[in-house]
Each structure stands twice: as C-alpha cells, then as structure tokens.
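#dry-run=false #mode=assembly
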Amino acid sequence: MRVLAAVLLLLITACTSSTPAPVRLKVLASTELADLGPVLAELRRATGVELVVEHRGTVEASGSLAGFDLAWLSTARFLRLRGAEPELASSVMTSPVVLGVKRGSRSALGERPTWADVADRAALGRFRYGMADPRVSGGGMAALIGVATAAAGTGAPLRPEDVSCDRLQGFLAGRAFDVPDPVGEFVRRSDVDGLVAHESELLSLNASGRLAEPLEIVYPRDGIVLSDYPLMLVEPAHRAAYDRVVEWLRSPAAQQMIADRTWRRPVEPSVVRDEKLRADLGTALYFPDSSEVIDRLLLFHDRAGDGRQVVFVLDYSTSMAGARLAGLREAFGSLNGFDRFYVGETVTIVRFAGTVLEERSITVRGREDLDALLAVVASEDLRDNTAIWAALDRGLQLARGETAVVLMTDGENNAGPSVDEFLRVGRGEVPVFPIRFGEASTAELDRVAQASGGRLVEAGAKSLLEAVREIRGCR
Amino acid sequence: MREPEFKVVDPRRRFLLWFVPPLAVFVAGLVVLLVSGHVTGPFRSVTVVRALFASKRDFFQDEQVKRILMARGYQVHVTPIGSRDLADKPDLDSYHFVFPSGHVANEHVKTRRAGKHVVPYRPFFTPVVLATFREYAEALKQAGVAKPHDSSEKPLYYNLDMAGLKELADVGKRWNELGLTNGNRVIVQSPDPCKAYSGATLVGFFATAFGDEPPQTVAAAEKLAREVKPYVDAQGQAGEDMAPKYFVPEGRTHAVIAVIYEHQYIAYQLRQKSIDSERVLLYPKKQHQSTPELISFTPEGDRIGELMMNDPDLRRRAVELGFHSLSWNGESADDFGTYISGRGLPTPPAGEAGRVQLPKAELFERMLDVVGECK
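#status=ok
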C-alpha cells in the first residue's frame, strides 16, 4: 500500500512539475510603485517569482542599477540618455503627469488650462502647488520637462538652448514644496491649492478618503508627459523568470488588477476601465534627447525663488513719444503666462532722458505690484537729451545678486559719459540686454552687451513684445 | 456491558480512499491537456529550439503558433532583441536560428556565419507603414500630402508623399496650423534607428524625399544621411517598439504618427469586433517591405524553417496575424487578400506603387550610424 501511495504521489508531482521553482529577484522600483503590494503578492502566487523591491525616485534610481536583478521605473528615458538602458524592457502600464486641484482653487486656472496658464497664476501667487523633487523623482522631472517644453513653445523636443531660466521661474514661484513624498505633504498642509503628480497618485489619494473633498484632475491642454513603467531585465541570468513576470503582468487579469488597485492605465487594450481612467489625455510633449537639457532644467530649478531681480533702463527722451512708447507700455501690459513678473521677483525701473528721471524697485507680491509697475511705465514725463551710459550705470548700481539688465533706447548718447568711459570701469557679472530701435548705435550697444555677457536684440525685426520675451533676464 | 465493537475494514474501500483523489487529479489533468490541445505533449519528446527574434517575435509568441509547433514536437524559446543588436550579438552561434526583420541584419548575420551551417527561409513579408489617426491623415490630405487609397467614406489606407511631408517639416508646420488641437510640430516617431529595423526604415523613407537613386559610395551615403538626420532627430528621444502603444486608447498621446509594421495593424483590426476606423495607415509612395528571414544554423532550425514554408496550419495562422505569405519561389501567395477581405477588411495597398531602393547593406548601415549617432 505504501508503495502504491508513493507511486501516486510521484504521479501527482509529475503532473505539476511544469510549475517553475520559486525565484526571488531584487528589484529597484520607482517610489510610487509602493502601491503594487497586492499585485506582487498575486504575481508570486501565480508565477512563483517573488519580487523583493527597493524603492527610489526614478531620476535617482536611473543613476545606477547595479546590484539589482530587475528595474521597474516610471520611464527608461533617463537611463537611455546615459546609454544605460537594459536590453530588455517591457512597458506594463502608463500614467500621465498631471495636476490635481482643490475644488475651491479650480476656477483660478480657467476652463481647460495650459501649462502657460498654470505658470501665469503661479507667478501671480494665485495658485500654489506641491510637486515631487525633480532631482530625485521621475514625476517631478516629468513636470519640469513638460512645463519647460510648453514654455519653449517650439512644438518640438527641448534643446539645451530652449531651456531659458526666467520662463520657468514664474511656474516655480508657485511651488509650495518639492519633497520626496509630495502626496503625504499635501495631505498635511492646508495652504496649498494643488499637486503636480501622476494621475495614478492623485486618483489613489482621492479614493483613499484622506482628503475632505477629492481633487479635480486637470490635463493641461498643451501637452502632458506620460510615464510608461517598463519592467527591465538588469541581470540577464534571470531571463526566464523575467519572461514569466512580464507575461503575467501583461495578462488581462493582471492588467485589470493593476487598473483597479493602482489607478494606472493598462497597456492591454481589452481591459475594462473605470470612467476616471478614460479621460482624454490629449497631446504628449516630446522627450528631449540630451542630458544637457536635464542638467540645465535642474540648474534653473535649483536657482528658483531666491529673489531674482530684473532692471529695466528705459529711454524716456522725447523721440520715444508716440508708437515707440505705446509699444513699450503694451509690452509691459501684455507680459503674461511664462513671461509674467512673478511673486518674489524684484523689478526695478530706471526712466531716463538727459538724466535719470525716476527709479522704482518693486518686489512682486501680487497683482497690485504689477499695477504699480505699469503706472511707472505709463508716465508721460518725456525730456530732451539721452544719457544712455549714465542711466545704465545707475541701473547697474541698483542690481542686487542674481540680476539681468534690459536697456531700451532709440537714440545716440548725447549727455553724460561716453561708452568708452562707461566701459573703462569694471562692471562685474551682470548681463545687459540692449533692445535697439530707431537711430541707436548698433556698434556701441553690441559692445556693451558683449562685454557684460548679454546679447543685443533688434526691436525692429521683431515686435517689441517678442524682444522683451526673448531676453527677460535670461542668460 | 456492551460487546466490544469491531470495525470491519473493507480493503477495497481503503484502496479507493487512497486511489480516487489522485485519480481525479490525473483525469482532470488529462482533460486540461485534451482541451488545450497538448494531448500527446507530455508523452512525447519535445525539442526546445532557441532563437533570437526582432519585431517578428509576436508570431512565435502567439498561443496558436506555439500549439501548432508543440503538436509537431517543437517548442521555440524566444529571446527578443532589436534587429541590429541581433546581428552584433556575441553569442549568436549558440542559437538554432535567428529571425531578424530586415535585409541589413540578414546580410550581417550571413556574413558572420560564413563557412558554417546557414539556411535562409522567407515565409512572409510585411510593409513598414506610418500609423496614424483619422483626423491626422485627413489633415495631411488637406495639406496635399496624403491621398486616400480608395474612395470609401472612411478609408483605412492613405498614400503618403514623403517629399511633401519633408516640406511640412522644413517649415516647422504644426498640427494646429492644419486645423487640429495639437501644438506639436508635424513629426514622425519611430524606434531608435540604431536598434530597430522599423526605425532604420524611416531613414530610408526620408531619403526618398531627396531623390530616387540610392547612394553608391560611402561619401554619398554620409551626405544623404546628414540631410535626412534632422527629420529623424526631430522626434527627440526615440522610443522602442511603437505598435503596442499605438493601439491603446492613449495611442494619440504616445505618438500621432508612429512607424510600425502593417501586420501589427492588420492583426489588431482582425481582433476587433468591428473595424476600428479611427486608426489608419499611411503608405509612403515608395514602400518598404520587411521580408524577415528565418536564418537557420542547425538541423532543428531547418525543421522550423520548413514548417514555416509548408505547414498549412502555420501558414494560415501567419495570415491571421497579418502577414503576406510568400511561397518557396518568393512569389506572394493570394491567401492574404482573400482572408482579410473575407473578414471585411479592405486590402491594403501593399507593394503597389514601387519600392524604396535601399542602398547596399554596408552603405545603409553607414547612413544609420550617421543619422542615429549609433554607439
């Protein structure tokens, strides 16, 4: 009898021998994937593969995959920039980086806002948001890339030269925090209007009951960045287990579970989705093909909010009357979106003719300050003569810390020091961006621009507004 | 006082107690095997064949294909890899066969196997296409760059003028200037030309916008590559296989024009309950057909190759998966058109209006290196 039992036992085990031996794999995964616990438990039951997960921000994790068998990050794009993408990668699910907004703050952004609208309200102090730290987190970096791409407005991937400092500063002025756990921080605070994060994180937060009322999800009209969560094979020896895991994760049942439990969008088209996961995402923004772009974004990100200043040295000699002055006022009045003066920025205006006529410094706190600036520019106090270099000298004296100077003039210098005398004195690091129109001397303005590290802009070729936008204090 | 009770043990019952549960397991297992078509599987020796695959791996990963091969006594273990990486793989010789997507990799593999067992089989072909969405195809039509292939109300196939598309790119035309709500420039997105054959084909497509004659010298190839490069670079960082993402509901957000293979589209349409008329294909007037070669290194590989050419079940399945089948003499068989029109899908304009003359393999590789800055 015992023999018979043994034989039967053998038969049974023989029948199940196709179930592979249990495997334990070390996985480096994006921070937000901590919500995959139930899915991974089911994966282990179904495939015998146990994923032992260590969580890190995607940007940080992309620095090195050494010591792990698999990597499961929000995107392989940061690895690809370094040429370090593993050979095998399989996208498992997607989630866009979007905005979650409190109901009470929602109207501030308008009907279907663009990133420019968000930057505009953020610059005015009317929209304060939290985000993940882009030095660490893929979601934070995706937001930064999205906003910078929208700000560059080329409709193409960012090139290093497109990443201009001040066009991001307005957006970043609205940032209440960038921390490793933005969701947790958001729940703790009451003074923040919204959160920039993955759709999945926002929908999970809404479903969690941790908020008094759910956030409204806003998909910026000019484009979003989509994370596609590829599972990557780092250690080729684990190929067989990797294949099993991918096959299971992409099966309809697992995809359904991912959609239901984690609010990420399935890559399997047949899965039935919750209404919330059907929202149209619209246009995607292209991803840059240069790590220099990422470096520059971080540079400007780190520099944000430390009291930058822009000094405008404006020619109010009588020749500016009429269309030129009207153009100047219009340019100031229509600075909006990414170009707006932003909260925390100090704007200094020096009006001059034969002498300095007026100087005003205003640190922007809200819309009233912008109105005050417009009042200065609206002045009808025009005088004779043009002391360009004396006025610029005064403007430079008013510069504090991180500053750029914009000089607008239409005439020849006929009072005060000459350009040679002006340049004889060391001027430090402050870049000067002259905007030339009318009879102003190209040669002299260009010399000063070059000597300071700035750039000459022709107001004739483009509209004045374009010129102001182009140079808004950017190096 | 009660009599002591004796429990009478019926040896047959005891036997049944032991025997029935395992028997049930056995019978259940047998039923599962019968239903799944592996009935003879466990009792017959199965040859495991190791193979390297580029984009055509979906064929061998198809459940029905696996079942047919299993019934013939073979199990193909698939290692997916980009076509160009495949040709350069150091352990190439350790596989029974390889299945790259295009002629450059094919030639490269054959060169590396010179003097050893190497037998090519060409079971089917599929054109490389630009997959897009109806409103984008219609916008290109309005711009005079695309023409519907047939006069139906909702054509699925459009012929594309690559020179016209290049001109749109030259002036930095944006989709919102063509009447769509998308501020992005008119850009084609593809996998990395250094790694994937479909990405390389995009280089070939744009090259046709600069003239019909393929370059004959390295210098001419490099010059042409430098002219083509901006149009391929325009997409920023290239992706991987575009097809899976094109077919999800977020397809437009992944890419509005993506380079894929026609078979991926046909197979997708055949899986739908009714035809998806939102997703449409653009065929460059000079088409490029990917004719993957199953290149066998061993007798086991030969056997798979022969099955691919001869086995009626495998050939029928290939057509169901969207491939145009080829006979031994390289002629295209007519079962593709018959089958898909039988399923209500119009016949695509494959192979009608001429083909891209790709340069010789080594010159084309040089072009790819220049365009993709391949490492």
